[in-house]
Amino acid sequence: MGMSVEQPLWRALVAYRVLTAGYAVALYCFSYDDRRHPLLGGAYVAVLAVWTLATLGRVMSARRCTVRFLTADLTLALTGILLTAVVDTQARIDSGSFTLPSIWTAGSVLAFAIKGGWRWAAVASSLVAAADLIERRSAARDTLHNVLLIWVASMGIGYVVEVARMSERTLARALQIEAATRERERLARDIHDGVLQVLAMVQRRGNQAGGEAAELGRMAGEQEAALRTLVSGAPIPAPSAADGAPPGPHDLRTLLAPYASSRVTLSAPGTPVLLDPAAAAQLSAAVAAALDNVRRHAGERAHAWILVEDEPDAVLVTVRDDGPGIPEGRLAAAADEGRLGVAQSIRGRLRDLGGTAVLLSLPGQGTEVELRLPRAALVQDAAAPAAANAGGTA
């Protein structure tokens, strides 16, 4: 079946062809005695009527309406227009009498428009216009009016059909995505209610039991985190440029995905967060430095959360943990001691990129690092970011 918008057009074309074929027959019979060669014209009109009835099935759909049929159909219409100059008298032609196929010709042109769009309609209507001018032997006002009418109508319908087809494909794609999303959500619910809960229970029991069971619990926790990332739609790490990946913007999600584990939860948009390769690498390194601080100062049992937000004017990455927090004045003291992890590995990287890094911490309430990279800074061709500082962290 054709698309829902296209099928009514084919049905309307069938009705148009039948009605206009009947009109052409009636019109010829009414003026039979006024023709120069009435028998020749009658033979053509009879062929036109038989052809119309015999080919009704051809104009039921785009699949049946082949290019070969369209060519034969238009040839019949053009033959009738040119044959009018032989069958009719010059006086009748000059007075504006109808051609042998009359308005049936428009149906042939409209078939081209529905089948192939406005470009096919333009070719078919141009051929009809040329035949009309040859038959009339002059560019009279009525002739030009009819030619222009066929051009505008056929090309307009062809354009509408093309737009409708694109809309239909877009709608079909959207419905497929919606169906896939619903199925994924259903699977995610089933996995969450079963597998993830079992893995979480194995992790807790293993940690409580200690020994070899603790190792089993750790592995279960890692598998739980990987499975949770999969069902939540988080990205799978992409190959690096060294592995043959094509150059171009990098998806920040793929660089941050390896940091997810049983102790680190990654939340990212469902669509790619594209950044310049250098900016994506520096932002990812800043996140790694923040997570390193969590491991060093909050302990191995601390949990961290990474939140990626793709805003219209900036990319925002937040790293939060549930550790004891940073005592007041500790960062300043670390800088005085020459330990510039936060100052250089985090704030320095963002500063070089034209962004900002804000650190919020309260004793006993954990620490939050907010990394903000404006997109305006990425558009400007600024100096290359400073090399990553691999020194000690605060």
TrEMBL record:
<dbReference type="InterPro" id="IPR036890">
    <property type="entry name" value="HATPase_C_sf"/>
</dbReference>
<keyword id="KW-1133">Transmembrane helix</keyword>
<keyword id="KW-0812">Transmembrane</keyword>
<feature type="transmembrane region" description="Helical">
    <location>
        <begin position="39"/>
        <end position="57"/>
    </location>
</feature>
<dbReference type="Pfam" id="PF19354">
    <property type="entry name" value="DUF5931"/>
</dbReference>
<feature type="domain" description="Histidine kinase/HSP90-like ATPase">
    <location>
        <begin position="281"/>
        <end position="376"/>
    </location>
</feature>
<feature type="transmembrane region" description="Helical">
    <location>
        <begin position="12"/>
        <end position="33"/>
    </location>
</feature>
<feature type="transmembrane region" description="Helical">
    <location>
        <begin position="143"/>
        <end position="161"/>
    </location>
</feature>
<dbReference type="Pfam" id="PF07730">
    <property type="entry name" value="HisKA_3"/>
</dbReference>
<keyword id="KW-0808">Transferase</keyword>
<feature type="transmembrane region" description="Helical">
    <location>
        <begin position="69"/>
        <end position="87"/>
    </location>
</feature>
<dbReference type="GO" id="GO:0046983">
    <property type="term" value="F:protein dimerization activity"/>
</dbReference>
<dbReference type="GO" id="GO:0016020">
    <property type="term" value="C:membrane"/>
</dbReference>
<dbReference type="InterPro" id="IPR011712">
    <property type="entry name" value="Sig_transdc_His_kin_sub3_dim/P"/>
</dbReference>
<keyword id="KW-0418">Kinase</keyword>
<dbReference type="InterPro" id="IPR050482">
    <property type="entry name" value="Sensor_HK_TwoCompSys"/>
</dbReference>
<feature type="transmembrane region" description="Helical">
    <location>
        <begin position="107"/>
        <end position="131"/>
    </location>
</feature>
<keyword id="KW-0472">Membrane</keyword>
<keyword id="KW-0902">Two-component regulatory system</keyword>
<dbReference type="InterPro" id="IPR045975">
    <property type="entry name" value="DUF5931"/>
</dbReference>
<dbReference type="GO" id="GO:0000155">
    <property type="term" value="F:phosphorelay sensor kinase activity"/>
</dbReference>
<dbReference type="Pfam" id="PF02518">
    <property type="entry name" value="HATPase_c"/>
</dbReference>
<feature type="domain" description="DUF5931">
    <location>
        <begin position="2"/>
        <end position="172"/>
    </location>
</feature>
<dbReference type="InterPro" id="IPR003594">
    <property type="entry name" value="HATPase_dom"/>
</dbReference>
<feature type="domain" description="Signal transduction histidine kinase subgroup 3 dimerisation and phosphoacceptor">
    <location>
        <begin position="183"/>
        <end position="231"/>
    </location>
</feature>
<protein>
    <submittedName>
        <fullName>Signal transduction histidine kinase</fullName>
    </submittedName>
</protein>
